[in-house]
Amino acid sequence: MTEKTVHNAVMVEETMLVLDVKSGGHYLDGTLGGGTHTEELLKRSKPDGHVISLDVDRSALARATERFATYGDRWKGVEANFRHLASVAEQENLALLDGILLDVGLSSDELENSSLGISFQKDGPLDMRLGPKSNDDGLTAAEVINSWTQQDLETVIRTFGEERYARRIAAQIVKARKSARIIRTLELVSVIRSVVPHTYEGGRIHFATRTFQALRIVVNDELQALKDAIRGAQTVLKPGGHLAILTFHSLEDRIVKLAFTGTEAWEPITKKPMMASEEETKENPRSRTAKLRAAIKK
Ligand SMILES: C[S@@+](CC[C@H](N)C(=O)[O-])C[C@H]1O[C@@H](n2cnc3c(N)ncnc32)[C@H](O)[C@@H]1O
Questions:
Q1: What pLDDT score was predicted for residue 4?
Q2: pLDDT value at residue 1
Q3: Alpha-carbon dihedral angle through residues 116, 122, 126, 127, given to the nearest 10 degrees
Q4: Which atom of ligand 1 is nearest to the CA of 222?
Q5: Which of 28, 160, 185, 220 could cross-link 214 (Cys pair, CB 3.0–4.6 Å)?
Q6: Which pLDDT belongs to residue 47?
Q7: C-alpha 54 to ligand 1 mean position (Å)
Q8: Is the peptide bond before 47 cis (omega within 30 degrees of 0)?
Q9: What pLDDT was estimated at residue 107?
Q10: Is 0.90 surpassed by the pTM of this model?
């Protein structure tokens, strides 16, 4: 038996509504994670709808394979990066699709898994790849931290972490790595701690949040993967098919907003992003930063 998921899926009802899930439809969930969204797609497309779920995290796929066995050939899990969703849908003979969902970022299962090196609260190797298919070049966070120039580190931490102390943090990383390579998450946390104010952002977020976010984005090439996925969705959705994307920080939301409004290909379903209800944010704090945008392929 694989371990149960601890991930609490976000805005499930809202995503199903904007996807307009129909009996017998063909759906692709690009981010399987704990499987709640996938299961809803299966339930709402019964009795003969098909759902294919992608993830780069092998443990998410193993968990779902057990959980969804009862759905037989209505469900398939594929270890793939969602940036290649168009070719996966074609290989699996599921195109053209009625709907595609992306719930980007991390699952709580991954945050709990210290061996991925994603959490700044758990000691682990500074890796940060979510799985072997997370990137094509094998880049790890340790490689970035120990071999990139101070200028490059500063740019990455500022651009992808929107971190105001990027310069100090980058300088301190370069200083610290002269005595020994920084290879563990908590080693990096203490380097950051030594140069940021004690009252970091009024205590609203942990002082390592932004630097860790920046490294994760770079290692997994997250922003480009999202752009590739939206472009791919355009080719494998039916005209009238729906694309729903849940994002958790402004860099990602900006990409989705621009993609949906900047071309003739999409008709946005809502002008503004949908947010989680007050009730949900109380129960699941992770949902506080979630933004849901959806569009119809013209
Ligand atoms: C927020 S969770 C999804 C949760 C899911 N919707 C649910 O109902 O539990 C995000 C998942 O996307 C996966 N992921 C992140 N980037 C990916 C990528 N480029 N390709 C495929 N999966 C990715 C992560 O491994 C993680 O399992």
A1: 87
A2: 56
A3: 10
A4: 19
A5: 160
A6: 97
A7: 8
A8: yes
A9: 93
A10: yes
Give the pLDDT score at 88.
97
Query: In order of start, what are the domains of the chain with their CATH numbers?
Result: 12-109+226-297 (3.40.50.150), 136-219 (1.10.150.170)
Residue with CA at minimum distance from ligand 1 atom 15: 105
CB of 35 within 6 A of ligand 1: the answer is yes
Q: Ligand 1 centre and the CA of 136: distance in Å? A: 17
Write out residues in the chain with pLDDT < 70, as ranges: 1-2
Q: Does ligand 1 have an atom closer than 6 angstroms to the CB of 81?
A: yes
Q: Is 135 in the pocket of ligand 1 (CB under 6 A)?
A: no
State pLDDT tens for residues 227-252.
999 999 999 999 999 999 999 999 99
The full 3-state SS of the chain, as one line of letters, equals CCCCCCCCCCCHHHHHHHHCCCCCCEEEECCCCCCHHHHHHHHHCCCCCEEEEEECCHHHHHHHHHHCHHHHHHEEEEECCHHHHHHHHHHCCCCCEEEEEEECCCCHHHHHCHHHCCCCCCCCECCCCCCCCCCCCCCCHHHHHHHCCHHHHHHHHHHHHCCCCHHHHHHHHHHHHHHCCCCEHHHHHHHHHCCCCCCHHHHCCCCCHHHHHHHHHHHCCHHHHHHHHHHHHHHHEEEEEEEEEEECCHHHHHHHHHHHHCCCCEEECCCCCECCCHHHHHHCHHHHHCEEEEEEEC
With a 6 A CB cut-off, is 116 part of the ligand 1 pocket? Answer: no
CA–CA separation, 50 and 33 (whole Å): 18
pLDDT of residue 248: 94
